[in-house]
Amino acid sequence: MENESGEIQPLSATNFAGYFARIQPQIPIHCLILNACHSAPLAQALATHLPYVIGMDIAISDAAAMKFAVGFYKALANHASIPEAYHQGCGEIQLYNLAEELTPKLYQKIGSNRH
């Protein structure tokens, strides 16, 4: 994050998750994708407040991240559920012989029955 002076200001996973907890009632978010490398811990923290969050377990190449996004959004456009779209995104990575199909991780809010 940047502060008012344009300087980098670290933000804890707890504070970031708290932000989404506060805005979720006014701006319902069904799924959030964190395409950054090593973002799975943050995704897991956010999943306490959002129905679905996808984060990257380890480093992910730009090519694999883009293929995941293509497969994910293509599936959503065809009325797939978020878990189905997640699997389609991982499959898209595998289709192009990129060895990162296990890098994206899907987290679901406990007690959420959204599809």
- Main pleated-sheet profile: 3 strands, mixed
Strands of the widest sheet, in order across it, are: 1-2-3
The mean pLDDT is 92
The radius of gyration is 15 Å
Helicity, as a percent range = 40-55%
Task: Output the helix-strand order.
Answer: HEHEHHE
Shape: globular
Task: Describe what this molecule looks like in 3D.
By secondary structure, the protein is an alpha+beta fold. The protein has one domain. The protein has four helices and three strands; from the N terminus they run αβαβααβ. The chain starts with 12 loop residues before the first helix and ends in a 7-residue tail after the last strand.
Structure keywords:
115 residues; 3 strands
Give the helix/strand layout.
Elements: H1 13-23, E1 31-33, H2 40-46, E2 52-56, H3 62-77, H4 82-95, E3 104-108
Parallel strand pairs: 1-2
Antiparallel strand pairs: 2-3
Brief summary:
The protein has one domain (13-108).
